[in-house]
Design a protein that fits this description.
Elements lengths: L1 H13 L13 E7 L8 E7 L11 E6 L5 E8 L2 E10 L18 E3 L11 H4 L1 E3 L4 E4 L3
Parallel strand pairs: 1-8
Antiparallel strand pairs: 1-4, 2-3, 2-5, 5-6, 5-7
Length: about 140
């Protein structure tokens, strides 16, 4: 039950906002794609986190996009060098958050960078990637 509560806290805090809070003017571009989304209903919400913001604080950048042809593509711009993780959720009912069933399990698909999902709360270490000198491209599986 503790794990389910932590997952709920994680997902709710990550996607409570779709605003971009990054104010830097230089940095790397990260392009993220998701293919094979089960339907074109709603949006996919994305959040870029550092270890300090993961699970508990507003993300460094956040965005949402509509789904076309069961695919989405988003870009995070002006990302400084460092370690990050990206989380996302298919917000099918377009209510700006992930939904859960009565037992606390997510009813909407979600994913993270590195595509490592477990039965416990998400961990920064398993989703972490490093931004250095070149733009990045990655795929996330829901």
């Amino acid at each position: 039950m503790k794990n389910l509560l932590l997952i709920a806290l994680f997902i709710s805090s990550v996607f409570a906002t779709a605003q971009t809070s990054d104010t830097s003017t230089e940095g790397i571009t990260i392009t993220v794609t998701i293919d094979n989304i089960k339907n074109n209903t709603g949006k996919v919400l994305f959040a870029l986190h550092t270890e300090d913001t993961f699970l508990i604080k507003q993300p460094i950048q956040a965005t949402g996009t509509t789904i076309e042809g069961n695919k989405v593509k988003v870009t995070f711009t002006n990302v400084p060098k460092g370690a990050y993780a990206i989380t996302c959720v298919h917000d099918e009912n377009d209510n700006g958050k992930i939904d859960f069933d009565a037992s606390g399990m997510p009813t909407e698909d979600y994913g993270m960078s590195n595509n490592e999902l477990s039965y416990g709360p998400p961990e920064f270490g398993s989703a972490k990637f490093t931004v250095s000198d070149t733009d990045l491209t990655m795929k996330i599986v829901l």
